[in-house]
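Exercise 3.2. Students should predict the tertiary structure of the chain below and write it as structure tokens, then compare their answer with the key that follows.

Predict this chain's 3D structure.
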Amino acid sequence: MHGKNFREFVVGILILLCFSTADYPQTYKIHTDRDSIAVRKTAEDFLNAFRNLEWMKFIAFFADDATAFFPPSAHYPKRATGKAEIEKIFKNVFVNARGQKTTPPYLAIDPLDLQIQMLKDASIVSFHLDDPGMFGRRTVVFEKRKGKWLIVHLHASGIAAP
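Answer key:
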């Protein structure tokens, strides 16, 4: 190709690229394995801190502007807004759990059917818990902020076991 034909070819490719990417949602991106591995590790570290009631490690996973819905056992039916409000509720959970056992792990949190959905700079981690008499449902939304995956929303609910 020479001169005018080459320019027309390049312009055509550029136009094609512009229109071909317009159909894809902008919230999704091609994530690297490194991102999904980092999210899985962060989720595992969060759950381990929770199981072992390691307060400082546990609460550090939450963004300052995080929100949460708690299961009925927390006796807090509203949405908790902000890290400070979430801390108050979880402190009671930690105190109650520590009274049940004398050594870690204090809580049996064994995720079933764990799924990670990667978004642009966020990830949705969902799983089930099989507790006696209750089928637990958990969703944790992580957002990558300054290179660190933080919890921006936690949803914990349960239904009577079938």
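Discussion points: The chain is about 35% helix and 30% strand. Residues 6 and 12 are 10 Å apart (CA to CA).
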